[in-house]
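Final report, Chapter 2: Outcomes

The project's central promise was a pipeline that accepts a single protein chain and returns its three-dimensional structure in a standardized token representation, suitable for archiving and comparison. That pipeline is now operational. To close this chapter, we reproduce one record exactly as it appears in the project archive, with the input sequence first and the structure output second.
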Amino acid sequence: MRKASALTRFFAPGIAVAALLSGCGQTPAATPDSGVPSPVQAAAVQAAAADAYQAGRGDPIGLPAGSVYSNPASGRDEVVVPDMRHTALLIGDSQSEPADGWPRLGLAAVGYKVHFCGLGGTGFVASNGKTGNYIDALQRGDWKLPYGTPALIVIQGGGNDAARGATDAQIVANADRLIGALRDRYPGARMAVIGTLARGANYGGGRRTQVDALLGTVAARHGIPFVGVGDWLSKYNLAKNLADAVHMDAAGRRSLGGLLESRLRQLGLEGPP
């Protein structure tokens, strides 16, 4: 027996999902045993879904926020996120993972809600044992992309790749694959890349600064705006706010969030009104 789709599980038994979603042809008249809704029933369900979406509780497809939708267009499970028109999809590592991570703060300051995909310890090449690197995690479904088109897609990272000895060739190859996969999934969506937080090259930035510069060349080749952060710790005197070798304390995260806000505005990447 074929497994019921997410939409079939959501709607009450006896309502044919295909009839609700179809915009072509005529809607068959309902009969007591047909399992097909009348036009009035279908319109009522669609109106309720639209009301929930406008109130930020769900999506026009009729599923509540947080539900997993088996999207026939992509062939993948996707997460229903309300208000995608104002949502930035953020793919990143432990710099982005906390609720007050500086990439999140910067995006929120220019008008975005944030949907995060990623995990600490991962990167373009690096995995953390239970979650693959960015492109492998996407393809395996370790984390799920949102349904609908984000207002902006942001890829942040590179620090774990620097720490684990990933080569330039490996980083470039996987970054290219990731960008290609995201463009296939969300054609026409705006994208940006945030590099690897570090000290400057003359202040001990080392491999982290090199990876930041490398990601800048990848972004430029794809025509994607790039926020280079490979010298921010020294340039803005923020090394004093390091909580450990690579992560910031709360004050440092706020400072970096403000700097990122300014850079996003300079790049014309503010959220939609």
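Archive annotation: The chain has two domains: 6-76, 83-266.
This record, like all others produced under the grant, will remain available to the consortium after the project formally closes.
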